[in-house]
Amino acid sequence: MHFTLADLVTDITQNAVEADAELVELEVSENDKEFRFLVKDNGKGMTEEELKRAIDPFVTDGIKHPNRKVGLGLPFLIQTAGQSGGGWDIKSEKGKGTTVAAWFDSGNVDIPPVGDIPGMFRSILMFNGKAEIIIRRKKTEDEYEIIKSELVDAIGNLEDASSLVMLGDYLRGLEE
Ligand SMILES: Nc1ncnc2c1ncn2[C@@H]1O[C@H](COP(=O)(O)OP(=O)(O)O)[C@@H](O)[C@H]1O
Ligand SMILES: [Mg+2]
């Protein structure tokens, strides 16, 4: 299977936006030891029972995303983190929100490739939904923050072709 850590982060962040959150905070940190991310939302949250189902690999049905390249979802995140010497932590409270964190050991032979980080941020910023999105990116010698509402103020809605190009250039510039 060919998937990247960026695919995983995108998928988990999509869950947060789809949970009707007003605010989604994403942190993506990377150094020579590990890749780590955290997605925190104040959306609908899950009961203990709902969370149990959400992380159960045998419950996922493939109906909602029949065309995506891998199953992804929470069970897949958990499996991937476990296989590559990492870990995960999910906390959720019904009506309050959810926080999903996972980390991956950079030195492990089974860690998936990181993938296209600026491309990932662009996809995330373009998700439909009312959520304000705050992205914090931390690297060994650099860090930056992206706030969706500020980007929209600066370059207009993120849907037309020219703002898409601008957004892509801007995000790649931040990452360099
Ligand atoms: N951040 C979240 N907030 C609330 N519910 C969530 C969140 N993440 C996952 N869930 C619940 O877990 C279910 C399974 O998530 P996932 O494995 O990503 O599959 P899918 O998104 O295709 O339904 C979701 O349908 C949703 O009910
Ligand atoms: Mg999902």
Please write out the topology.
Elements: H1 5-18, E1 23-30, E2 34-41, H2 48-54, H3 73-83, E3 87-93, E4 97-105, H4 117-125, E5 132-139, E6 142-147, H5 148-155, H6 161-175
Parallel strand pairs: 1-5
Antiparallel strand pairs: 1-2, 2-4, 3-4, 5-6
Helix pairs in contact: 1-3, 1-4, 4-6
The structure holds adenosine-5'-diphosphate and magnesium ion.
How would you describe this structure in keywords?
binds adenosine-5'-diphosphate, alpha+beta, 176 residues, Heat Shock Protein 90, six-stranded mixed β-sheet
Explain this structure to me?
This protein has 176 residues and is of the alpha+beta class. It has helices spanning 5-18, 48-54, 73-83, 117-125, 148-155, 161-175; strands at 23-30, 34-41, 87-93, 97-105, 132-139, 142-147. A 6-stranded mixed sheet has the order 3-4-2-1-5-6. A hairpin with a 3-residue loop joins β3 (87-93) and β4. α1 runs antiparallel to α3, α1 runs parallel beside α4 (117-125) and α4 (117-125) crosses α6 (161-175). The structure holds adenosine-5'-diphosphate and magnesium ion (MG).
Treating each run of at least 4 consecutive H or I residues as one helix, how many helices? 6
CATH level-four homologous superfamily name: Histidine kinase-like ATPase, C-terminal domain
Name the ligand types.
adenosine-5'-diphosphate, magnesium ion
User: Which architecture name does CATH use?
Assistant: 2-Layer Sandwich
Order of helices and strands: HEEHHEEHEEHH
Question: How many strands, what sense, and barrel or not for the largest sheet?
Answer: 6 strands, mixed
CATH C-level label: Alpha Beta
Q: Determine the structural class based on helices, strands and strand pairing.
A: alpha+beta
Unreliable runs, pLDDT <50, ≥5 residues?
none
Number of strands: 6
CATH topology-level fold name: Heat Shock Protein 90
Overall mean pLDDT stands at: 92
State the domain count.
1
Portion of residues within helices: 25-40%
Q: What general form does the structure show?
A: globular
Portion in beta strands: 25-35%
Q: Strand arrangement, largest sheet?
A: 3-4-2-1-5-6
Rg, rounded, reads: 16 Å
- The first-to-last residue Cα distance is 28 Å
